[in-house]
Each structure stands twice: as C-alpha cells, then as structure tokens.
Design goal:
Number of helices: 5
Number of strands: 0
Low-confidence stretches: none
Radius of gyration: 20 Å
C-alpha cells in the first residue's frame, strides 16, 4: 500500500513541477512539488520497513505453524524478540529513512488539511 501510494504522490509531484503549474502558481508550485517528493520518498521508506516486518513475521509463522500445542507456540514466541524490534527491521528502518533524508532533505509525512470524507 505504501509503495502504490508513494507512486501516486510522485506522479502528483511531477505534475506540480510542470511548466504549466509553474506558470499558474509560480514559486508555490515548486515548493509544493518538493514537499510531495519528500513525502513520496518517505512512503518508499515505509514500504521497505513494512516489507522487512513482513519477512520477520513470516519467519515466525513458519516456525510456529508446526507446533503441537499452544504452550509450545507461547514458549517459542517468548524466546524471540518481537519482530518489529529485530535487527533486520531496525537496520532497514534506519537505512531507508537515512536514505530518504539524504536524497530529499527531509522525512515528511503529509496529512490532509481537512478530514477525508468518503462518499
């Protein structure tokens, strides 16, 4: 979901960067395009983090799917670090967010200015 949304935001950023948008809105179009590009890169980082979390949770599922009892499942899960605190997930998060900052100058999550209404 993050990747698809990030592509849509990137497309919007390109439209705001166009000559027509610059002619109509001036410098504001370029600033808005930069904000959207930062948001798009942050979405890409979130997609990578989500992927790393999915891999770790899949590893856990593969390990516990053949357990015979709930007791064995609980013992296995208690012996492991939570999947979102494992080194692969943390390193992916650190690397992807650092890359986002290095490429765009910010890690930015843009919220809608008003509540979103679904008709």
């Amino acid at each position: 979901c993050f990747a698809l949304y990030g592509c849509k935001v990137h497309s919007a950023s390109q439209k705001w960067r166009s000559d027509e948008a610059t002619r109509l809105f001036g410098q504001a179009a370029q600033l808005h395009s930069m904000t959207l590009e930062q948001h798009s890169s942050t979405c890409a980082a979130l997609a990578l983090i989500s992927g790393a979390i999915s891999v770790e949770s899949l590893r856990d599922w593969r390990a516990i799917r053949s357990t015979a009892s709930l007791q064995q499942m609980a013992e296995f899960l208690l012996s492991k670090r939570p999947f979102f605190l494992r080194s692969t997930v943390l390193l992916t998060a650190l690397g992807s967010l650092a890359g986002t900052f290095a490429l765009t100058g910010a890690v930015r999550v843009v919220q809608p200015p008003r509540p979103v209404r679904i008709a």
